[in-house]
Write a structure and sequence with these properties.
Residues 11-434 form the Aldehyde dehydrogenase domain. By secondary structure, the chain is of the alpha/beta class. The chain contains 17 helices and 20 strands. The strands form 5 sheets. The protein has a 7-stranded mixed β-sheet with strand order 10-13-14-9-8-15-16, sandwiched between helices. A 6-stranded mixed β-sheet has the order 5-4-3-6-7-18, sandwiched between helices. Helix 2 runs antiparallel to helix 4 (63-89), helix 3 (48-59) packs across helix 4 and helix 3 (48-59) packs antiparallel against helix 7 (151-164).
Length: 482
């Protein structure tokens, strides 16, 4: 496929046009926004074969996984936004007492302006169009910059976009580092970035120069607690699925397992059974198993497999030519092992043994806060772990499924990112809550309010302060704490 990146002149021109569109007020019309959400839904549903084929070329991913994890999830988000945007956009009156009731205190949801969304390569549809849905729903004009690493998917989005979407509201810019830098040097009202923390820091620094708010969706080492009260067969099947879908290249993929020493061998055996059930002839020969995105990522992951101080007890096979890396389980890596130094982002699963839940929580808390945390345990134990740890999201009894529940917000904490999207959270991310007061200033009502509020004017006196306190102060509904 011919490489076609957007020129700097085109980037600046489209940015200017979108700012002009926003200033015209066209996106304030909720009906206009809903039409764009409808068009986006049809873009996804009309082009299933083209989208899944582009993703197959980029990631070697199966049609099934791309439809389930990309097209279905993103379509659901668009429909969720379409269904709720009328309610989310409504102004809300706020009760602040009888006097202020005369002033009609109200909060209005307004679009922030022209925004930039920088996507990631691992899920070329859901983590790129997903944030854009929030921007469209809120009424922002937007530029989407898909990752150039998933090249075929980025080029397809750029081709399909003008066929469905109104160019007055959104555009797709293609390019690499140079084009992204050009975009970051422009003025935005919000920047949404999905990717790694190294680039996330660069984006945040660039945005800070213009006091531009940002949302960073990053990643981290998401732990899995497996307690003796868990059903190990169910846990192993769900764990093997979550670690192998998209060949482990998922920001919320389970990164490592924490379990008691006496459970480790049982868990490994159940993981082995799950592997055989999923790929009876081996993952390499299965059309359902994906590939690593590029040679650089493959070399990084191969380096982990070759240099771990733990024992590889499942998988480990690989082929650099086809970028195949078998689902690999590492037993007993030390805490400073290469597999534990940073987010794995591939089909490698270390299993760490700990002496009880308290030690497991201390292990997690001693590291950067993860984007997700998973627990297989009875409810009482799960609640204890949730109470003792921090993470972007948490799932008890399964893995990664919180991402596909549309009304739930999705986002990180600490070095796993900040801000959120999906459902109403996406709408709020790209909205400004504008407060208004309409003080009566004419007619009989205006004169009445003026009489009530006249004690604020100089010359001041104790009597005037007392009157204002009686009028506007709140009575304390509690006594002094003991």
């Amino acid at each position: 496929m011919e490489v076609r990146f957007s020129s700097k002149d085109q980037i600046r021109a489209w940015h200017s046009e979108l700012r002009g569109s926003f200033d015209s007020g066209i996106t304030l019309d909720v009906k206009f926004r809903k039409r764009e959400l409808q068009q986006l839904t049809y873009l996804l549903q009309d082009n299933v074969e083209q989208i899944t084929e582009a993703i197959r070329k980029d990631l070697g991913r199966s049609h099934f996984e791309s439809v389930f994890a990309e097209i279905m999830v993103t379509t659901n988000l668009a429909i969720e936004a379409y269904t709720n945007v009328d309610a989310w956009s409504k102004s809300q009156s706020r009760w602040a007492g009888l006097v202020w009731a005369l002033h009609s205190p109200t909060e209005h949801k307004e679009p922030k302006g022209t925004v930039l969304i920088i996507g990631a390569w691992n899920y070329p549809i859901s983590v790129q169009i997903g944030p854009l849905i929030g921007a469209l729903c809120a009424g922002c004009t937007a530029i989407l910059k898909p990752s150039e690493i998933a090249f075929h998917s980025a080029q397809l989005l750029a081709k399909l976009w003008p066929q469905y979407m109104d160019s007055r509201m959104s555009r797709v810019i293609t390019g690499g580092v140079e084009e992204t830098t050009e975009l970051l040097d422009l003025r935005w009202e919000h920047i949404f970035y999905t990717g790694n923390s190294r680039v996330g820091k660069i984006v945040a620094e660039k945005a800070a120069r213009g006091l531009c708010p940002t949302t960073l969706e990053l990643g981290g080492k998401s732990p899995v607690f497996i307690h003796e009260s868990a059903n190990l067969s169910i846990a192993a099947h769900r764990l093997m699925w979550a670690k192998s879908i998209n060949c482990g290249q998922t920001c919320i993929a389970p990164d490592y397992v924490l379990c008691n020493k006496h459970l480790q061998d049982q868990l490994i055996e159940e993981l082995r059974k799950a592997y055989i059930k999923f790929w009876p002839n081996g993952a390499r020969l299965s059309k359902d198993y994906g590939r690593i995105i590029n040679d650089q990522q493959f070399s990084r992951l191969e380096h982990i497999v070759e240099n771990t101080k733990g024992s590889i007890i499942i998988g480990g096979k690989r082929d650099a030519k086809t970028r195949f890396l078998e689902p690999t389980v590492i037993k007993d890596p030390p805490s400073d092992d290469i597999s534990m130094s940073e987010e794995i982002f591939g089909p490698i699963l270390p299993i760490i043994t700990v002496d009880g839940v308290d030690e497991g929580c201390a292990f997690v808390n001693g590291r950067d806060q993860p984007l997700a945390l998973y627990i297989f345990a009875k409810r009482k134990i799960s609640d204890f772990i949730i109470h003792k740890t921090k993470s972007g999201g948490v799932v008890q009894g399964d893995l990664m499924v919180h991402y596909v529940v549309c009304p739930l917000s999705f986002g990180g904490i600490g070095l796993s990112g900040y801000g959120a999207y999906h459902g109403r959270a996406g709408f709020e991310t790209f909205s400004h809550t504008r407060s208004s007061i309409h003080a009566p200033a004419t007619g009989m009502l205006g004169r009445a309010v003026e009489w009530l509020m006249a004690s604020r004017y100089p010359p001041y006196s104790d009597l005037k302060l007392k009157l204002l306190t009686m009028l506007l102060g709140k009575n304390r509904p509690f006594g002094r704490p003991s």
